[in-house]
Amino acid sequence: MAERKIEQIVERVISEVMESHVPKLRADITRRVLEEVKPQLGGEGENKAGPNHLLKAVSAIHSATTQRDVLRGLLDNAVRYCGRAALFVVKGGMAGGWQGRAFANNEAIKDFALDTNSALVARVLDGHTALSGNASEMDKRFLAEFRAPADGKCILLPLLLREKVAALVYADAGHDRGGQLDASALELLVLTTGTWLEVASLRKTAPKEGASGGPEKKEAPAAHPFPAHAAPSFSDPFAPHAPAFAKAAPAATAVHAEPEPAPSEAASDQFAGLPPEEADVHRKAQRFARLLIDEIKLYNQAKMAEGRKNRDLYDRLKEDIDKSRSTYAKRYGNTVAASGDYFNQELVRSLAEDDATLLGSNFKR
Which of 201, 218, 245 is the last residue of a domain? Predict the structure, then answer.
């Protein structure tokens, strides 16, 4: 009981500190993102997709006050770097249209059921990574209804939340010859959107997770988590969206299927055998480690690429890694989750792509 009370106090204090630092955090993220992308954009500062416009795009996403507005900001700014863009919600094994930009009929994107077995979609869902390819690899029904782009190329990007694909962003150069499709800028916008949604969610849910259950009641959390198997406290920006095709689908695959996890998901829960309160601490520690590593990845794209190439990631990112490890240790180093070593696990898994040798000889667990 004493440990749980301490955890509640810590979470409350963290929430208060985060609230007071959000404006600075937003400014720091924007500044760091711009620093990383300027060298890669080279001399493009004069054109539409130059660094100044990219800075404004990232700032617009971070200044949104609701999760839905963050996602609208992503699409509104994505079309600065492509001809057309659309976002599809991934739930219950389905990908349903949410909103589109610059299509002849944006409304038709809504409720369109994307074939998740089509080649490009399946590879992105399986690999959790953005892929450029021929439009012919996309859903044939999608191409028939919205027409293939003039150059025959497209990109599909996963919007990741807590390591799960919560949505897919489709982009192409449109029907005009010479239309643009800036894959690097689009990847950056999708990455920063996912990270900002997680930061916003952490701020929003921290007081609820640390609440003592007193008479004062806050806004109820969303009934269905953002991906289906994330923590229940995660607020779902797509919760009000129930596509027509999903309403007619069987309950087992509908977007608003019952919130209980499937048997396979329950069986794969590595903490299922622990007492509920102890398992909850492990899950929170694991999620916090992932968020810290995601922040390192967001701010250090160039260093990360060089570090993987030269197998010296730790040397190049030592300051950020050590600072984040210290932050993690202060929060979970003296809890039951300390034995899990989740920070180092995530460092190897995500930053080093499951190859610890990429961190270099100076990295010590």
Answer: 201
Rounded to whole angstroms, how far apart are CA atoms 234 and 147? 36
Residues in the chain: 365
Q: Is 78 exposed, middle or buried (0-12, 13-18, 19+ CB in 10 A)?
A: buried
Six-digit token string for 133: 């390819």
Mean pLDDT, range 323-329, rounded to an integer: 90
Inside any domain, residue 293:
yes
Nearest-angstrom CA–CA distance, 37 and 6 = 41
Q: What does pTM read for this prediction?
A: 0.52
- What is the tens place of the pLDDT at every residue in 99-122? 999 999 898 998 788 888 888 999
| CB atoms near residue 257 (< 10 Å) | 19
Side-chain-side CA neighbours of residue 349 (13 Å):
12
| Helix/strand/coil for 134 | strand
Q: What is the pLDDT of residues 260-285, one digit of tens each?
A: 333 333 334 678 788 989 988 998 89
What's the rounded Cα separation, in Å, for the pair 281 and 336?
Answer: 7
C-alpha 13/C-alpha 321 separation (Å) is 24
Bridge partners, 171 (sequence order)? 85, 155
Report the alpha-carbon distance of residue 361 to residue 365 in Å, rounded. Answer: 11
Average pLDDT over every residue of 36-50: 47
Residue 149: which pLDDT band, with cuts at 50, 70 and 90? very high
Evaluate the CA torsion angle 29, 35, 37, 38 in order and state its sign. Answer: positive
Domain limit, last residue, from 201, 223, 252 = 201
In angstroms, rounded to a whole number, what is the distance separating the alpha carbons of residues 135 and 231?
35
